[in-house]
Amino acid sequence: MPRISIVPFSPSDRYHLLLCELDDTMFIVDCGWPAENDSDDAQTDRGKQQRGSIGSLDDPRDALGTINWERVDFILISNYEQIRLLPYITEYTAFSGPVYATEPTKAYGRCVLEEGLSAAAKKRYSASTSASTSRNGSNSSNSVSAGNNGRGGQSQLYSKRDIVAAMEKITDVRHNETVSPVPFVQAYTRSSGYCIGAGNWSVEYKGHKTAFISTSTFATCLHPQEWDGKILSEAQAIVFCDAVDPATSPGNDAADDVPTASWQNVQVSQRLNQLCSTAISTLKQRGRVLLVGEPYGVTQDVVQLAAENILALNLPQPQFIFVSPIAERTLQFGNIMGEWLCEGKQALLYLPEYPFADKELRKKGHLHFVSSLADLATKNIPQGNWFVVIPPHDIESIDHFVRQWHQDAQRCSSADMASGTGLAKFTVLIHDDDAARAQRLVNRLSIGPEVTFVPVARRFTFHSIEQCLAAAERAQHVLVPSHVFARLESQTKSSEFRLFEFSYMQATTVDLDTDRHLPLEVQGEMARRMREKGKQHGLVEGKLTLAAGKIRLECLDEASRNSEDGQDQVAGAGAGFRVTAATTASTTTSALATAPALKKRDLDRWTPERLAEELGEVGLKATVVSTPSQNKAVRVVVAGGSATICMDNGNGNGWSVDCSSASAQWTVIDSLRRVLKASL
Amino acid sequence: MKVVPLGAGQDVGRSCVLVTLGGKTIMFDCGMHMGYNDERRFPDFNFITTEGDFTSRIDAVVITHFHLDHCGALPHFTEQRGYHGPIYMTPPTKAICPILLEDYRKITVERKGETGFFTSQHIKDCMKKVVPLHLHETVWVDDELELRAYYAGHVLGAAMVYARCGNESVVYTGDYNMTPDRHLGAAWIDKVRPDVLITETTYGTTIRDSKRSRERDFLEKVHSCVMRGGKVLIPCFALGRAQELCILIETYWERMGLTVPVYFSAGLTEKANRYYKLFINWTNQKVKESFVDRNPFDFKYIKPWNRDYADLPGPMVLFATPGMLHIGTSLEVFRKWAPDERNMLIMPGYCVAGTVGAKVLSGMKVVDIDQYTQVHVNIDVQNLSFSAHADAKGIMELIRQASPRNVVLVHGEKSRMSYLKSKIMGEFGCPCYDPANGELLEIEAGKDMRALMSDRLFQTAWAQEQQRRQELAPITELPVKGVLLLGDSKRLTRLLDPSEFDLDEAPVVASARINPDTQDTNNFAAAESLDSVAADNGLAGSDDEQSADIRFSTRRVFDSAQLSERLGLADSANVSSAALAAICDLLTVDPRIPLQTNGAKVVRLGQSVEISVPDATSECELPSLAISWCWEEEGLATQALSAMNRVLG
């Protein structure tokens, strides 16, 4: 019975790294790990609880060190948020297998990693400079500098060059493209709706599909390709890698009541609109907007919506400024990856229109990219109402803008305020769905009324999982994180499947009850010949070719086989493969006598030792034994039985072969024949 | 499996190949012929059915790329002939196809005044039915028919299509290019081993020199012509070759600091280039990498064409559509520029026979453009094959990659095909066909059977292979030895490890006739011992040389309680004897098996096969039957064994 075992390696509920084992095949699903700046001052609750027992979580090397990387066959990446440890794994461990991800995951993933790297570098720099001066009383700088002095922070796990090298190793796939990392395992992704190119992997093993539901969303109002529910209906086992921990999730108390998918969509679109209308109303008053968000994902939707509204309302076009070294690339990628976008945006491709507004903004000179604050100083950007986008980790830049704009607002005369000519007003928008992170940010900034925090929570909650399970027609086993398990357990008692929980660093093993047979293609020729001979079964010899994810049995070529084992084969196997023994059909006795006549002197040449040796050469376990009657005999042990070949059956003219079971006899007879033939 | 080319059979133009596999029919491409202006322009759909119900006859239409000779008849087929089934195209094809169709429609209807041609609305309606087909993605048309697209590199969005239904599979290449060019990558396909590979053969006999030298040649010719004050006319499709040549000219102009104006005809330019910008993912890696800094399709030197420019003096370069000089701007400009010997005409693509382009290329000095106009051709005519088709080497390479069992050649001239045909048959030893239009080709697909393989067998073979290998190269082939068990309507064929094989699983052979008349139940007086039987047989064939024998014996243990229940025996009955009798009954079914029963203890078949009830005193106390046979009668013995297994369960 095949079994799957799953060990989650990441302490966070948002980022995952699962080590899975399907019988002898080992693979990793996702390489997520909380970014350093997330983890250092506020580990998630679960992480904290387990910290004591497992050891330091600051260094993922501790966790990854327990994996035997040489045995890991392949890695599947679901989306670009779950990629943080990939460069470390490909560059600094013994892992050498393939890595699969979609093309946008690869392209964006590189940006995300590089951003993370530069953010960490900046942070380290500022931490080391501020270490001697004032500390905000928080322990954040402490832990970072400690990390620096001690074992080195997570950011030092790899360099920029490693990121490039790791990305080169990714094999890009499309949704629904079947890949076969090892011959008996096939995998494909289906869209998860979470971000561009995000997918959920399904691994098929012996006709048994296991779906890994990574970060997903039902929301359809965002730009990525929509959630594809087929993944659930096809799978026999479902692993939910990701679900919002109710304890840490922000403001979805309402979610407890209304669990439908359309509701989630409505909620997300409402929140997007809320963000957008706040921005628009500020811009209307000639104010400035600071959007805190990575230059990808939901930010793209907010900017898009804002740009559309500005155009529709005929407002003066603000200057869009992205403060990030990677923003230019991520926005550009959006425009060339149209096929990975939602239906509405895909339709634009055929017009042809650019799926995002940034192309138009850029053309008109309203879009600016600066890699940092210092870079901003060198750029000549028209003053006026600005729409600035800064990633949340870049607290200094955010801080700078907020302080600057505060000053502007204070300096603004009351007349200006009244007429709305000065830059009196500004708004800070935060859409991060990680409430803890957003809270930290707000704390750091010490700003009040200007902040609008509207978390665009789109990840699966346990309600979503419940709903998924309703669609999972064939599911027999469902694995969920432990924090969801408790809530789900009571509600799914009557269901057809068995529910399992998995928790951090604990292996969960599930037995899959399926046929232990691999799908195979047999060369038609083989079967045809067997049919011609009226046979229903027979011992065949051939070669398996593994290509394009399929296993195929082919006849051996006569020539190649002869050169391989140098043995002449049984007569009548002209086509190059053998069908011997075993006929259940009616054939005449004469036709049955395929074996050539043996002469006494042929047999006399054999000694038990020689026979044992020769049988050993053809792959049998043969030993010389003494029988009770003091005759030498050869004992052959094969799977499923044994056989004794008595070299002298008592009357001096033959051998006798006594097999203990029918299954043993196949192997023995065949090998014996081969050995004898070779000697004739 | 049936293959019928409705167009492009031993011909170039109006590609349309109908393939029936596993009971499903797919139409690959639905193109038009540029050389004709009558009904021969479209494929002859009457081959499918004369009743006009195409939707029930055809399960899917697949368009490989946007060239009109591959998609030109599609609106006609769907809107005017009434096909309503699904149509598959890659997204770039879906995007660009309607533009070219519309462009062509305008020329035919509005300039030539033809009637009965499809309308703009037809094109739009037709495109609504199109389902996008992404590269490598497996698309299920219905429960059985599966499609997969592979990169073909011929033009933006060109694809080769693999289709499978049941045990039959086919690859239709469309047009493809095995060498990467300025903006596109090379075609590539998995080793999918289709039953039939249908390949284009446009350049089937030529082996082309390196692309680089052709590019240099092209640029030098253009340069020399503009230096002498001539005008260069380059007729080409608005999309595809044009973009490649534009990139070439653009970089050359920049490097050489040239100021001679370069124009691009057709209002499509901006729109066409935008498609290239949007679908940059479908170009090659180099283009993709540079796009963030500057999209290579944002041309700096190339400006849109105005009809008035044709009469301007001075040198210029013009890219004009269409590529075969049969109509439109390129033909109009050609008429004006052809008489001047300073000018140059560069034909970068292929010209269908019958078009002005083909006539000019063949060296005709006076060309009839229409009924009333003749043009004297003094212009310097150059033919540089930039056409992105695979050459003979490329075609062979693709066949090697895909490893098909049969090859069908289409989209090429007959004379060239026969050469290629012999070459393919010689090199790959697989049958190769070149059917004419409307010729039904029935190919007996060397069907692969779907089967299941025992995991144990695979794991053993895999482990052995891994041990055997020294280097770490991935294993793609491994020898295996197992018992193949043919399936029937209920069960799939299985390949088992010999140890797992149980003869009982073998289905009863249908050919075994029941013939009670020939039951011979010769009774022997006494049971002979095994040894004496062996001795008899050993002596039986004694000639000059003493023949020896190997005697096999096997014990078959069975569950007596279960068996007696199955056979419906009374409690007191001897189960072993009853089992033997049952086996005997089974074997007597076949009259050709010489059978002797010796009492209740031994059954003899043929010369040496003997089934007996062993003495209870022997080492095994469990109820069992013993069977022994000699080397020579193994076949008979296995038959007996299977009967035994059937009885004993």
Automatic annotation (TrEMBL), chain A:
It comes from the Eukaryota. The keyword Signal does not apply. Signal peptide: none annotated. The keyword Ribonucleoprotein does not apply. It is found in: Nucleus. Residues 38-59, 128-155 are annotated as: Disordered. Keywords: Nucleus. One of its GO terms (biological process) is snRNA 3'-end processing. GO terms for cellular component: integrator complex. Residues 128-148 have a biased composition (Low complexity). Its main location: nucleus. PANTHER family: INTEGRATOR COMPLEX SUBUNIT 9. This is Integrator complex subunit 9. It comes from Coemansia asiatica.
Automatic annotation (TrEMBL), chain B:
Residues 242-360 form the Beta-Casp domain. It is found in: Cytoplasm; Nucleus. GO terms for biological process: snRNA processing. The keyword Ribonucleoprotein does not apply. GO terms for cellular component: cytoplasm; nucleus. Belongs to the metallo-beta-lactamase superfamily. RNA-metabolizing metallo-beta-lactamase-like family. INTS11 subfamily. Keywords: Cytoplasm, Hydrolase, Metal-binding, Nucleus, Zinc. InterPro entries: Beta_Casp, INTS11-like_MBL-fold, MBL, Metallo-B-lactamas, RibonucZ/Hydroxyglut_hydro, RMMBL. Residues 13-230 form the Metallo-beta-lactamase domain. This is Integrator complex subunit 11. Pfam families: Beta-Casp, Lactamase_B_6, RMMBL. Gene3D superfamilies: 3.40.50.10890, Ribonuclease Z/Hydroxyacylglutathione hydrolase-like (3.60.15.10). Its cofactor is Zn(2+). Its main location: cytoplasm. The keyword 4Fe-4S does not apply. GO terms for molecular function: hydrolase activity; metal ion binding; RNA endonuclease activity. It comes from Coemansia asiatica.
